[in-house]
Amino acid sequence: MVFIIAEERYAIILDKLKFDGIVKTSDLKKELNASSETIRKDLKYLDEAGYLDRVHGGAIPKSDVKPDDNDDDVYISFKVRQSQNSDMKQSIALKAAELVKEGQSIGLDSGTTSYELAKVLKKKFNNLTIVTNSLINAYELVDKKGFTVIATGGVLTPDENSFVSDFATLILDKINLDMMFLTTCGVSLENGITDQRMDEVVIHNKMKDCSKEVVVLSDSTKFNEVSLITVCPLESIDCIITDSNIDIELVEKFRAQEHNIIIAE
After folding, report:
1. What counts of helices (H) and strands (E) characterise the chain?
2. Do 235 and 208 form a contact (C-beta atoms < 8 A)?
3. Can you name the residues that pair with 65 across neighbouring β-strands?
């Protein structure tokens, strides 16, 4: 058995943080062959030295942490999330596009996987109506000839570039969507779909309610995770698309309870 000294662990942790935008205690335990207590001490040392910020279950870069009212649930910026698991998100977006038909009306929220899907839809389709509360999605699609882009409006958040508040839901009372793609921070059998920002959840649910079908886009790292705010139970969605890194035994548990999971190869 090979043991790694503290300085080597620090270097590995910081390299992984730089590349992935986040480190998880569970992953570091396996990669570094260390105990939970050792990883906790390493992250504490690096936090106090100013290299990172500890969050529940791991750590994120120093400049991208924004504490929430709940110390166990810390907001992670769009910029950091965009760099996390990008290959997984791209594969999920490609699989999600297979469910879309030319001419449909599609709802996209402000998540990073939603943004990957917006880019795929732009390449693959000629005639779609896209409704979104994301300024980033709207800007990506605005020059696509044949697309109708409807931004919800509302209060614009600078950290997410998304429209929030009750104002953002008013237009949704007048819209009927064929399909909504819902991104998330957590998927679990017990807690359903959860997210980290309350002001986003209001819009997610309103967009979900005016859609014929609701498809959750979630990379495999978010399964068995529970974030601060409950969005909806699993029974209120039609299917979940995830990546091929998902544990097959976990998939079978979901399917045993009649929850449809599509795996993007």
Report:
1. 9, 17
2. no
3. 76
Is residue 158 exposed (0-12), middle (13-18) or buried (19+ Cβ within 10 Å)? exposed
Q: Which alpha helices (DSSP H) does the chain contain, by range?
A: 6-20, 25-32, 36-48, 78-83, 86-97, 112-124, 135-141, 198-209, 248-256
pLDDT tens for each residue of 57-94? 888 877 544 444 444 445 555 555 555 667 889 999 99
Separation CA 241–CA 88 (nearest Å): 11
Residues 61 and 161 in one domain: no
Domain span at residue 26? Answer: 6-66
Q: What is the CATH number of the domain that holds 51?
A: 1.10.10.10
User: Residues 37-61: what's their mean pLDDT?
Assistant: 85
CA distance 27 to 157: 32
Q: Is residue 117 part of a domain?
A: yes
- In eight-state DSSP terms, residue 36 is H
* Cβ burial, residue 230 (10 Å; 0-12/13-18/19+): middle
Rounded distance between C-alpha atoms, residue 249 and residue 152, angstroms = 39
pTM: 0.72
Do 48 and 98 share a domain, yes or no? no
pLDDT, tens only, 102-120: 999 999 999 999 999 999 9
Number of residues assigned to the chain: 265
Cα dihedral 118, 226, 253, 97 in deg (nearest 10):
0
The answer to whether the CB of 231 falls within 8 A of the CB of 111 is no
Cα(246)–Cα(230) distance, rounded to whole angstroms?
22
Q: Torsions phi, psi of 243, nearest 5?
A: -100, 170
Shared domain for 147 and 246, answered yes or no, is yes
Question: What is the DSSP-derived secondary structure letter of residue 60?
Answer: E
Structure tokens at 129: 């109506």
Of 109, 110, 100, the closest CA to residue 77 belongs to: 110
